[in-house]
């Protein structure tokens, strides 16, 4: 038996706004939507699920406070992607920088406050 895929799920209090953020702002594609409750967002071979909930995701503050992330996206050109997002009105939480672990990364938050890292190997 082989694991074929791993799918992360993020909670959102506004499914429409989150779909718009991930599609219009990040450039991903809506894979599916189930009523006003659930959606899948695709980038290449990867999918992230969005689940509408009544209360803000309680992990947001802890992740922010302790320097963790909800999702990590590997991209081809981190600097260019950061500039694209800035052009779309996204504020970077952490600007593009080279890390001790040989990546170039930057950090943003999505429409709900989830911490998203974008990186590329050096």
- N-to-C SSE string, H for helix and E for strand: EHEEEHEHEEE
Overall, the morphology is: globular
Largest sheet: 4 strands, mixed
What's the CATH class label? Answer: Alpha Beta
Question: How are the strands ordered across the major sheet?
Answer: 1-4-3-2
Description:
The protein has one domain: 2,3-Dihydroxybiphenyl 1,2-Dioxygenase, domain 1 (Roll), CATH 3.10.180. The strands form two sheets. It has a four-stranded mixed β-sheet with strand order 1-4-3-2, with helices on one face. It has a four-stranded mixed β-sheet with strand order 5-8-7-6, sandwiched between helices. The protein is built from three helices and eight strands.
Secondary structure layout plus pairing:
Blueprint: E1 8-12, H1 15-25, E2 29-34, E3 38-43, E4 46-52, H2 59-66, E5 71-74, H3 78-87, E6 94-98, E7 103-109, E8 115-121
Parallel strand pairs: 1-4, 5-8
Antiparallel strand pairs: 2-3, 3-4, 6-7, 7-8
Describe the structure concisely:
This protein is of the alpha/beta class and 122 residues long.
